[in-house]
């Protein structure tokens, strides 16, 4: 099943189409786990898709699979298809994939210090990207680096271009990393928890910057995060993952107003909200722990933690069902449950 | 009612040594002139971004790091000047819960040892009672009795944090410093631990200093909140007042920067420009002035004092009323 997009039908094909993606990790000769189990979604030009989940949900492995950066000999795409601008990339050679990364897919990660090379200046690192993908000379690449540093709001870009990463503050490094990711104007930017390690005032700067750059450059963004506040702020559409599967997906307004999968609703009720101190309420915690992939529950993977689970939920694994208007739900009982009312009562 | 803990003009500077003689070439002013009270039964939140000095305040109060100057009075006694033997008696009354549930438990100790060691060290009850006490602690933090003989690696992050909480409670302390106790946990597990801390606070009448960077969590769990920036206190207020009537421009910016989990409330916000300055060479006068939208020349000249701006509400800004 596919996730339809909110944009008008008949328009250009999605930038990225992921279908029934399955990523397998071999733990030993005998044991392997599916870290991503049948994940499908589309991302359209200029759109931000948020993938939300807790640790072990498979959100980061999904992005590593798309970038083909799975740890060698351990992780592999075992089934499914990933099409980038119509081109199947699960089976292209490593060399071709190196051309695609950086040029068509930009990436930013959580920790800028580990993603930038400490022994090269920021300018060299951006210029290297540009020269590799655009066959331009050194001086043009350097000019592009300065232009990009300026675009991401680094003051005095002509001077900063010769800085080493350690000479920059955390926020500035994050900006430099975004400049590097976008230097070749990729069609899609994959941002894996890009603001998680940042302070909230710096996070606010980064979120503004990413929105601003998306307006200017029109790229699609896959934003991977565990923070529902950031999702509400950034996303057009949301994919919620739990235990390697997509459990719900919908437009951002719909999923916050009308969550239909108990896990999604549970997440929303379990976060403390700013300004709630007037009438303090107890948080509605989801009981239990996130299951490990080696010991997945039978039936619905969420049923041991679900307040609405019945006998059937432990026996039958629900499929992702279409509730219309691009809202997809993996729950046997979604038709009979009214979680939105429940959420409103407790909010 | 007199406060249980009084922090009085506490400062903590870390020397930076350099050169061949390893002379002190500079100092990191991690905490400067911090004063606030914690009343018995109260949960005080300490919020700030990285470099604000919030963790250093917590550690200095417990004397895990010596203070450079100032006093911390616990039940009226300045614990900064106590000798090691006397300090041990006070240690029993003050405990800490750490941020990282993976790093703060000894991987070679079973839960049994984790919980009974502190009882033995501080002579809590008869040794024969220790196992029973450990079992009831486990239950208190929502774990089962059969988990007593397991090792930390057998538990998830949330469960480990519960063990860390049980360990802090093992010596029946009067006061607990919780340093970012839920920051490392998954969203669905955070709520469990927050609820647990609230229950314990109510059941055991705990007094707590709750250190965190997440304002929503702090508002939820704390009675009063102290906002720090670059080693200094910017504002002190009740949780409700802080969110409804923030006074200091930094607090306002901090609140405005928090992403709200409601897409319909996407806001235009005051985005602070620039980075947090280095605590090695903090700005003169008001430390926040380099990023403050209200800053004037005056702000560079004087360090603003905390002034009352409402009932139990203090703010360190010369421009607000």
What does this molecule look like?
The complex is a heterodimer of chains A (347) and B (321). Chain A is of the alpha/beta class and 347 residues long. Chain A has two domains: 16-104 and 186-346, P-loop containing nucleotide triphosphate hydrolases (Rossmann fold), CATH 3.40.50; 110-185, no CATH class. Chain A is built from 13 helices and twelve strands. Chain A has helices at residues 59-67, 94-103, 112-115, 122-134, 138-151, 157-160, 170-182, 200-217, 228-234, 252-257, 262-270, 311-315, 339-346; strands spanning 16-26, 32-43, 48-52, 75-84, 87-88, 105-108, 188-192, 220-225, 237-242, 245-251, 321-322, 328-329. Chain A has an eight-stranded mixed β-sheet with strand order 6-7-8-3-9-10-12-11, with helices on both faces. In chain A, helix 8 (200-217) links the parallel strand 7 and strand 8 (220-225). Chain A is globular and about 65 Å long. The relative contact order of chain A is 0.14. Chain B has 321 residues and is of the alpha/beta class. Chain B has a single domain, classed as Rossmann fold, CATH 3.40.50.300. In chain B, 28% of the residues lie in helices and 24% in strands. Chain B has helices at residues 54-61, 84-91, 111-121, 130-140, 157-169, 187-204, 215-221, 239-244, 249-257; strands at residues 5-18, 23-38, 43-47, 69-74, 77-78, 94-97, 175-179, 207-212, 224-229, 232-238, 307-310, 313-315. In chain B, the strands form two sheets. Chain B has an eight-stranded mixed β-sheet, sandwiched between helices. Chain B has a four-stranded antiparallel β-sheet with strand order 2-1-4-5. In chain B, a hairpin with a 2-residue loop joins strand 11 (307-310) and strand 12 (313-315). The mean pLDDT of chain B is 91. At the A-B interface, helix 7, helix 8, helix 9, helix 10 and helix 11 of A face helix 6, helix 7, helix 8 and helix 9 of B.
Sum up the structure in keywords.
A: alpha/beta; Rossmann fold; 13 helices; 35% helix; disordered N terminus; B: 321 residues; alpha/beta; eight-stranded mixed beta sheet; 9 helices; globular
């Amino acid at each position: 099943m596919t996730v339809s997009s909110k944009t008008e039908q008949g328009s250009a094909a999605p930038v990225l189409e992921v279908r029934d993606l399955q990523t397998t990790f071999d733990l030993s000769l005998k044991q392997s786990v599916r870290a991503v189990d049948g994940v499908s979604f589309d991302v359209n030009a200029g759109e931000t898709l948020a993938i939300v989940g807790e640790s072990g949900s498979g959100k980061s492995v999904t992005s590593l699979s798309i970038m083909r950066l799975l740890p060698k000999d351990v992780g592999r795409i075992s089934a499914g298809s990933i099409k980038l601008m119509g081109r199947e990339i699960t089976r292209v050679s490593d060399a071709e994939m190196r051309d695609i990364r950086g040029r068509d897919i930009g990436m930013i990660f959580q920790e800028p210090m580990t993603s930038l090379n400490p022994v090269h200046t920021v300018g060299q690192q951006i210029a290297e990207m540009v020269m590799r993908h655009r066959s331009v000379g050194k001086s043009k690449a350097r000019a592009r680096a300065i232009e990009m540093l300026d675009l991401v709001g680094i003051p005095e870009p002509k001077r900063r271009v010769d800085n080493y990463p350690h000479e920059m503050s955390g926020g500035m490094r994050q900006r430099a990393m975004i400049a590097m990711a976008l230097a070749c104007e990729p069609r899609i930017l994959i941002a894996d928890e890009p603001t998680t390690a940042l302070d909230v005032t710096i996070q606010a700067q980064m979120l503004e910057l990413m929105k601003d750059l998306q307006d200017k450059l029109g790229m699609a963004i896959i934003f991977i995060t565990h923070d529902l506040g950031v999702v509400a702020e950034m996303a057009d559409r949301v994919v919620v993952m739990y235990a390697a599967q997509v459990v719900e997906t919908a437009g951002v307004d719909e999923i916050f107003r009308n969550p239909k999968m108990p896990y999604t609703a549970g997440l929303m009720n379990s976060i403390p909200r700013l300004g709630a101190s007037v009438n303090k309420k107890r948080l509605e915690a989801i009981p239990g722990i996130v299951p490990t992939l080696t010991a997945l529950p039978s039936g619905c993977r969420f049923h041991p933690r679900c307040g609405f689970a019945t006998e059937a939920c432990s026996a039958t694994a629900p499929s992702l069902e279409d509730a219309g208007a691009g809202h997809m739900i993996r729950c046997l009982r979604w038709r009979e449950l009214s979680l939105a009312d429940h959420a409103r009562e407790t909010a | 009612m007199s406060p249980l803990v009084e922090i009085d003009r506490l400062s903590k500077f870390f020397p930076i040594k350099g050169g061949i003689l390893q002379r002190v070439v500079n100092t990191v002013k991690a905490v400067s002139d911090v004063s606030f009270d914690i009343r018995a039964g109260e949960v005080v939140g300490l919020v700030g971004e990285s470099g604000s000095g919030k963790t250093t305040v917590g550690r200095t109060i417990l004397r895990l790091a010596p203070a450079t100057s100032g006093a911390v009075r616990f039940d009226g006694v300045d614990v900064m000047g106590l000798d090691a033997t006397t300090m041990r008696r006070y240690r029993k009354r003050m405990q800490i819960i750490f941020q990282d549930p993976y790093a703060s438990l000894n991987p070679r100790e079973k839960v049994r040892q984790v919980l009974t060691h502190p009882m033995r060290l501080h002579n809590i009850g008869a040794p024969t009672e220790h196992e029973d006490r450990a079992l009831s602690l486990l239950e208190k933090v929502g774990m089962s009795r059969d988990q007593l003989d397991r090792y930390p690696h057998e538990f998830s992050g949330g469960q480990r944090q519960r063990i860390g909480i049980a360990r802090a409670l093992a010596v029946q302390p009067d006061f607990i410093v919780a340093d970012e106790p839920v920051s490392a946990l998954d969203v669905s597990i955070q709520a469990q631990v927050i609820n647990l801390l609230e229950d314990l606070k109510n059941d055991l009448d705990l007094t707590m200093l709750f250190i965190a960077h997440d304002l929503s969590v702090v508002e939820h769990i704390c009675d009063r909140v102290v906002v720090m920036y670059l080693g200094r206190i910017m504002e002190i207020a009740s949780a409700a007042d802080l969110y409804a009537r923030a006074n200091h421009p930094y607090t306002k910016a901090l609140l405005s920067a928090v992403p709200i989990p409601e897409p319909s409330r996407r806001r235009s916000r005051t985005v602070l420009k620039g980075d947090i300055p280095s605590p090695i060479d903090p700005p003169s006068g008001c430390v926040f002035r380099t990023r403050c939208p209200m800053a004037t020349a005056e702000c560079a000249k004087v360090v603003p004092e905390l002034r009352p701006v409402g009932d139990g509400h203090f703010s360190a800004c010369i421009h607000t009323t």
